[in-house]
Amino acid sequence: MSPSPVNPWRFRLLVLAAAVLWSLSGVVLKAPAFEDLPADGRGPAIAGLRALFAALALLPMVRPRRIRWRLGLIPMAACFASMSVLFISALMTTTAAATIFLQYTSVVWACLLGWLLLRERPGRPDAIAVLCVVAGIGVILANETGSPLGNSLALASGVAYAGVVVSLRALRNEDPIWLSFLNQIVSAAVILPWFLIKPIDLTATQIGWIAFLGAFQLALPYVLFSTGVRHVSAREASILLLVEPVLNPLWVLLVWGEQAAWATWIGGGIILGGLVLRFAVAGARRPPLARDVQSVPESAPIAASASAPQ
User: Fold this and answer.
1) Whether the Cβ atoms of residue 310 and residue 183 lie closer than 8 Å to each other
2) φ/ψ of residue 232, rounded to 5
3) How far is CA 155 from CA 104, 106, 219, 236, in A?
4) Is residue 260 a contact partner of residue 249, using CB atoms and an 8 Å limit?
5) Which of the two residues, 7 and 42, has the higher pLDDT score?
6) For the CA atoms of the chain, what is the radius of gyration?
7) pLDDT digit string (tens) for 62-86?
8) Which residue blocks in 198-299 are alpha helix, DSSP H?
9) How far apart are CA 158 and CA 84, in angstroms?
């Protein structure tokens, strides 16, 4: 008896569901419940606790026989921890639109790092994305009315995420759930001591929101994505995941009324347009492998270029 045919729409919906869940970070972190937290410590505190809850959610899915220790795990985990703190700090300092669009500059930095460290020469589709990303950055930074510090943190989070992507590319034969769990637990172990040195009083409501971020906004999408991407091409998955940076600032606008400059949306559109062209052109030239997924930033914080995110 032949196996039943695979329904691609089921798996496309899983990838899309992951993107929607990843997009909820902004609307939660912009909630009034977090406004009274001290600005200098709330980023690390939330990042560390979110990573802890995500690690606890992922732990039951880690298969001991898939665990392998390699030297490349060190730079991956270090970059991921840095990215988490930078992203959350940026999101709570500048507008959600500027944060998410500027973090997507990781495409440029990943191309450069991949060329320098992995000898993966960028092709013409990558050049399209780089030019559009650079143009989009220029438009956003020239006209963004948010915090210059927050914009800088968002750009830095893109650089850190590029380090995660390149590391995952080098570790692409490792189990994605194991890599995701390791990133989260190391982030918690590295970041939480800061929370202990500079303690912040958190209410039960705030802890509940952070637990939601860790378990449902961060860990669950990884599982959905890693399941869906088995039957969805890298090009198609990458384009579906671009729903996330569009929805993230849109949720914040609809729920909390946070306004971003029109230039931010224009610059973000240029960045996303370049990425769509990059994936579309690359897919038209070479049929992509379903296990060779391109990078998707933090709200999607793990990865592409590995067999599944985070």
Assistant:
1) yes
2) -130, 135
3) 8, 8, 24, 26
4) yes
5) 42
6) 18
7) 999 999 999 989 999 999 999 999 9
8) 204-212, 220-228, 234-241, 243-256, 262-285
9) 10
What is the 8-class DSSP label of residue 308? Answer: S
pTM over 0.90: no
**Structure tokens of 137?**
């950055």
For the chain, give the mean pLDDT.
80
- H/E element, 57: helix 42-58
Write out the two tokens for 127. Answer: 């050049």
pLDDT tens figures, 249-278: 889 988 998 887 788 888 888 888 887 777
Buried residues in 198-228 as b, exposed as e (16+ CB within 10 A): eeeebeeebeebbbebbbbbbbbbbbbbbbb
145: Cβ contacts below 8 Å, ≥ 6 apart: 95, 260, 261
79 C-beta neighbours (distance < 10 Å), count: 21
**Nearest CA to 94 among 157, 154, 139, 25?**
154
What's the Cα-to-Cα distance from 227 to each of 55, 106, 287, 299, rounded to whole Å?
A: 18, 24, 20, 18
pLDDT of 217 strictly over 60: yes
